[in-house]
Design goal:
The chain is 41% helix and 14% strand. The mean pLDDT is 89. The protein contains 3 helices and 5 strands, in the order ααβββββα.
């Protein structure tokens, strides 16, 4: 005589198949999730660059120069010229001038780089963003190759 199998509960095979399906879904979804969070974090860099550029334009309107020779004439210039730079709203990026020659009397070049202690530092595709006084926007990967089309 054959015994009837109880229909209560799952067999080990059914449980393993369910775990396998969940694992496949996670493996597909997790990289997409990471890409989406990196992309959303880039907005922080763009926002910070635009904010600093607007402040630089106000300084130029007031004093007819982007790089005043005396301190406290243009506070945003003092901020981005300092070692700590201008920290973005979400604190993922720091806006600075890369070199002393990046800001002249009539031009500026701002650079936003990810804070190395934050998650955005793992975004190697869009590691650095730049913006100049005429609105030229560029982005570079961690190797220095231009990736503007992907990042801006």
């Amino acid at each position: 005589m054959l015994k009837k199998r109880s229909s209560a509960g799952f067999t080990l095979v059914e449980l393993l198949i369910a775990i396998l399906i969940i694992g496949i879904l996670v493996r597909i979804a997790y990289p997409y999730y990471l890409g989406t969070t990196m992309k959303s974090g880039r907005a922080d860099a763009k926002s910070a660059l635009n904010e600093v550029a607007q402040r630089m334009q106000r300084c130029f309107t007031t004093s007819s120069i982007y790089n005043p020779s005396t301190a406290n004439v243009c506070k945003i210039f003092d901020t981005i010229a300092s070692s700590s730079g201008f920290v973005s709203d979400q604190k993922y990026y720091v806006v600075k001038r890369a070199q002393n020659t990046d800001i002249t009397a009539t031009t500026f070049l701002l650079t936003a780089t990810a804070d190395s202690t934050k998650r955005q530092a793992k975004d190697l595709t869009c590691a650095t963003f730049t913006l100049d006084q005429i609105g030229t926007r560029k982005a570079y990967d961690s190797g220095g190759t231009e990736t503007t089309d992907k990042c801006w």
